[in-house]
Design a protein that fits this description.
Blueprint lengths: L7 H11 L3 E5 L28 H13 L1 H7 L17 E5 L7 H4 L6 E4 L2 H10 L10 H19 L5 E4 L4 H19 L1
Parallel strand pairs: 1-2, 3-4
Helix pairs in contact: 1-7, 2-3
């Protein structure tokens, strides 16, 4: 899932409430320390580039889930639903949430289903302007950096042929949730 303020967290939070034994890996948790983030030619800190993230650590985290999903879930505070048997990898689910998930090849191949949540410029800018960040956006950040970087990374993803399901971020929360949750349920049923 991608664009800033597109509804990624809202959708993910709803899915994890409905999907038992579910963990979320947030790409935002892999940002490097602020003093390691470069200032670009545009005059802004370059938070919207792969170099601002420890992508190797993120890949390692997702691989840890693949190798032992039960241990991963328990170590990430997920109460694994008890049953008549120990849960298997098919019983534990992981969602990855981020804005550059599909621009890093070692990570792309680890996902079964890839969603790309997009909203048009005007709506994205409106939503971002209503958010309260710990460090407020400096004037001109959205138009001078955030949106151009979004367009650049989206083009790179599309040019590399990443297979994604596009989601229209202007649809209602219920419509988006129903579409994604139905896809996940179908994927799980096909794994049985």
């Amino acid at each position: 899932m991608v664009v800033t303020n597109g509804g990624k967290t809202t959708l993910t939070n709803r899915i994890i409430k409905a999907l038992p034994n579910c963990c979320v890996v947030h790409q935002d948790d892999f940002f490097k320390p602020q003093d390691q983030i470069e200032v670009g030619e545009d005059g802004f800190k370059q938070w919207d580039v792969l170099d601002s993230l420890d992508m190797e650590a993120m890949v390692s985290t997702v691989r840890a889930w693949i190798e032992n999903p039960v241990k991963f879930a328990r170590s990430h505070g997920v109460n694994v639903t008890p049953g008549s048997k120990e849960p298997t990898s098919k019983d534990i689910h992981i969602l990855s949430l981020g804005f550059l998930l599909y621009n890093y090849k070692p990570l792309i191949d680890l996902f079964d289903i890839r969603y790309y949540l997009a909203v048009p410029y005007d709506e994205c800018k409106r939503r971002r302007s209503t958010r309260n960040y710990t460090v407020p956006d400096p004037p001109g950040l959205f138009d001078g950096h955030v949106w151009p970087m979004y367009l650049k990374h989206r083009k790179e993803m599309e040019d590399s042929g990443v297979d994604v399901v596009y989601l229209d971020g202007l649809k209602s929360r219920d419509e988006l949730y129903n579409q994604v949750f139905e896809d996940i349920q179908n994927k799980l049923l096909n794994c049985l």
